[in-house]
Amino acid sequence: xxxxxxxxxxxxxxxxxxxxxxxxxxxxxxxxxxxxxxxxxxxxxxxxxxxxxxxxxxxxxxxxxxxxxxxxxxxxxxxxxxxxxxxxxxxxxxxxxxxxxx
Length: 102
What we know:
Helix content is 59%, strand content 0%. It has helices at residues 9-15, 19-35, 39-47, 50-57, 63-75, 77-82. The radius of gyration is 17 Å and the shape is globular. By secondary structure, it is mostly helical. The chain starts with 8 loop residues before the first helix and ends in a 20-residue tail after the last helix. The longest helix is centred in the first third of the chain and has 17 residues, at 19-35. The mean pLDDT is 82. It has one domain (9-82).
């Protein structure tokens, strides 16, 4: 889109106006609310699916594959993390501290 390397134009284009998350929220909000989601939590979950959204918009994956990935996130670990039911795994340092113990 542009020549500015600091802007992720693909991400910006799929998030502009929140059209895709808004469409899904409007379609699923009854079920999502039963699971504990509100609009803000759903947006947070969809943030984790930005790469998949870009793949769908670019035609690299089908709508069905995109939907399966979103649903897997809602029902899986990502959803539990977003809802506060599970803590994200801590990253372990590749370089243990001096003395060989972490």
